[in-house]
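Repro:
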Amino acid sequence: MSALSQLLELLSLERIERDLFRGFSVPDGRDRLFGGQVLAQSLMAAQKTVEGRDAHSLHAYFLRPGNPTAPILFEVDRIRDGRSFTTRRVVAIQKGEAVFNMSVSFQSFEEGPERQIDLPELGDPEGVAYEEEIRKLLQVRGAQVERDDRRFQLPIEVLNAGGMNFSSVEPLPAELRTWLRARGDLPDDLSIHQCVLAYATDFTVMVPSVRPLPTGMGREGVQSASLDHAMWFHRAFRADDWLLHLQDSPVTAHNRGMGRGTIYDRAGRIVASCAQEGLIRIRSAEPTPTD
């Protein structure tokens, strides 16, 4: 089974009760749940309780690391069903504890005025493949790169212009230009494309918050973890065609970094935006008594 087929299977949640769903994970070499996965699955759980309306925004918190070998229960609370908007709350639970919490808002389709900040030059998809950067990072750390490590079999093709420089100690601009798309065709269902894009945005949006620092995000002594994630869906799009994800970071402070992203389709339309705050702790190789 291809990595994309596995992702689509993860999004095919099992309905246990009217508003209770069960999902699973595919171990991918991490010791915790990939945030993008539980984000996408929670969005799908909410979508399964809404008809005739598309998600336009979500706001989520990562509460616990999560166990990739245990099933996940998704409990949906039907907060409101209005004339034009619908609100849902989703809690992802493992072993009786909440690992993730999200609010999602849906809207009926409406025509109206349109405007956006245009991109001076869209360019063509190019850059360093995400999995190649992970491979180089593991080699720098002296870790063995296994052929069946699923971090090198991603369902999303991710290209970073100039590379992410995981191990660089040279300060770099707090910006990142990323092209992404699913590694195959997706169904003609906007909800699937929104879930796949939500999954993909968690790969790189926090990287610009570390690039200006005299350390690398993947170096020894650097601890990072997603704290929250927000997305806004502005227009319909296809996640199996190239999307340009422009990311930046306005601030890093108090061991937290802020990442922002604007996502364009090949026609230059802004189709989505995202923002994430993440934990960033940089420790010395020799811990002090106060650590």
